[in-house]
Amino acid sequence: MNTDADDRWSLVVPLKPLARAKSRLTPSAGARLRPRLALAFAEDTVGAALACARVRDVTVVTDDPAAGAALAAVGARIEPDVPGAGLNAALAHGARVVRRERPAARVAALGADLPALRPDELARVLDTARQFPRAFLADAAEIGTTFLSAAPGVELEPAFGGPSRLRHLSTGAVEIRSAGVDSVRRDVDTGEDLAAARALGLGPRTAARWLPVAG
Questions:
Q1: Nearest-5° Cα angle at 119, 51 to 76
Q2: Mean pLDDT across the chain, nearest whole number?
Q3: Model pTM?
Q4: Is residue 1 assigned to a domain?
Q5: 149 assigned to a ligand binding site
Q6: Which residues cross the membrane (predicted)?
Q7: Does residue 2 fall inside a structural domain?
């Protein structure tokens, strides 16, 4: 039973150091713009998440000081990547940090590369996730994962990276198949992904950095 008076979600968002983030965007964006786009993606993701009525707070796990400062300005809590052992270790650490303060928290991991994210679509995903101990949303390619949730008292057990949809299924997480949540599934790794996100509608920071270049 959740004894927290505030039953909204705490989201955990992982972010690599910007110098290494989104390397597959280099052919489309160039080496100088790529890290700035990676930060813009994260800023738009966090901004949209915090605008969602179902979200209480967002913790960003990162060791990049510039990214941390920028995302703190958007409203995120910044947590150093103490494990330093990759994406899933960072997410598990972030979830533990949240639950040290709020043991009954509903926790969800969200990718940092959702520049078209819409608060109302995220709310639909979160409302569905409440029905299950653990639930996840596959990416647009239905290979990876953009979202993973854990109910109060349930471990997150993140298994992101590569073909993570099948890994999350194998751990017993329920796949969310809701319609009308394309922006929560549209992560961006390549120029083609960014074009698809643009078609959905980019967030303001990504649009400001990308549209003048893309034309």
A1: 40
A2: 96
A3: 0.96
A4: no
A5: no
A6: none
A7: no
Q: Give 3-state DSSP helix, strand, coil % of the chain, rounded to 5.
A: 45, 15, 40
Q: Is residue 119 part of a domain?
A: yes
How many other CB atoms are there within 10 angstroms of residue 203's CB atom? 22
Q: Which domain CATH number covers 88?
A: 3.90.550.10
What's the chain's Rg over C-alpha atoms?
16
Q: By the 8 A CB rule, do 188 and 197 touch?
A: yes
**Residue 84 — pLDDT band, cuts 50, 70, 90?**
very high
* C-alpha to C-alpha distance for 54 and 35, rounded to whole angstroms: 30
145 annotated as ligand-binding = yes
The structural domain count of the chain equals 1
Cβ neighbours of 207 (radius 10 Å): 17
Largest Cα–Cα distance in the chain? 52
Task: Give, in order, the Cα–Cα distances in Å from 136 to each of 21, 33, 62, 152, 168.
Answer: 23, 31, 22, 16, 7
The mean per-residue pLDDT over the stretch 158-179 comes to: 97
- Domain contains 117: yes
- Taking the C-alpha atoms of residue 96 and residue 112, their distance in angstroms, rounded to an integer, is 19
Mean pLDDT of 57-85: 97
Measured CA to CA, the distance from residue 67 to residue 43 in angstroms comes to 9
Residue with tokens 């994210």: 117
State the sign of the Cα–Cα–Cα–Cα dihedral 147, 87, 204, 107.
positive
CA geometry: angle 97, 117, 145, nearest 5 deg: 60
Span 21-35, mean pLDDT?
A: 95
Question: What domain range is 14 assigned to?
Answer: 9-214
